[in-house]
Amino acid sequence: MRTILLLIIAVAPLTANALDVPNFKKGGVLIGLQVGGAVPGLDRANLAAQAPYSALLTENVQAAAGVGFRLVYNILGHASLGADFTATGWDVFNDRRGGAGFLVGLIAWHPLELFFLQKEERPFGLDFNTHVGLGYGIVGGSVPAAWGMDGITVQWGLAIDYFLTKWFAVEFFAKCNFIKHDKFYYDWDSAHRNPPVSGSYATLNPTGNGTWWHTGIALVLRIGD
């Protein structure tokens, strides 16, 4: 972590003459629109042991384009609280389409602010943060019924923001959703009837572990001084 911070400072401009730098110390609202690639890594052996024929779904799960949305409130330049949404899909225009979605509440730490505690302003429009989040995730596909699984998701990620003005930044981000799903559905619709149809889902214990990486770039709108 320390090496990353020193590298960021080393490559950043030394003055803000050509850049309208945000007043990071006053915090503000940050809205991010993300695009990139999403790469799954499901624990297929664990799923196969608990959910017969789960390979019909897991063998069709694949890397695909992904989009994301993040809304956070930054507190005095040091930390942010908010929410993060990720969505990805493959073969979306045919009957074997599938996808995944994750929604988490998060807390992020912005360590660069520690280097400028005694300064009125930061001399460059660069910021770095790392975050953890907790929420809900779902993975599914058509095989041909709506198969899938859902449950708890733990997220970790990092982002580097370069502010072109006080209000807009370009961001590089990477985040990983750690899947802790506890149900595998053979037929989503039948499993959510009242009462559920017998045999339409399997309870996973241990949970259906796996990862889902999402990396790319984002446009960030900052609302604040």
Share of helix among residues? 10-25%
Q: Which shape, going by the Cα principal axes?
A: elongated
Determine the mean pLDDT.
89
How would you spell out the order of helices and strands? HEHHEEEEEEHE
Strand order of the largest sheet: 1-2-3-4-5-6-7-8
Biggest sheet descriptor:
8 strands, antiparallel, barrel
How widely separated are the two ends? 28 Å
Rg (CA only):
21 Å
Structural class: mainly beta
Number of helices: 4
Strand content: over 45%
Tally the beta strands: 8
Give the low-confidence spans. 7-11, 13-18
Write the layout of secondary structure elements.
Elements: H1 2-11, E1 28-42, H2 44-50, H3 55-58, E2 64-75, E3 79-90, E4 98-109, E5 126-142, E6 146-163, E7 168-185, H4 188-191, E8 201-223
Antiparallel strand pairs: 1-2, 1-8, 2-3, 3-4, 4-5, 5-6, 6-7, 7-8
Give your account of this protein's structure:
This protein has 225 residues and is mostly beta strands. Helices cover 11% and strands 56% of the residues. It is built from four helices and eight strands, in the order H-E-H-H-E-E-E-E-E-E-H-E. Strands 1-2-3-4-5-6-7-8 form an eight-stranded antiparallel barrel. A hairpin with a 7-residue loop joins strand 3 and strand 4 (98-109). The chain starts with a helix and ends with a strand.
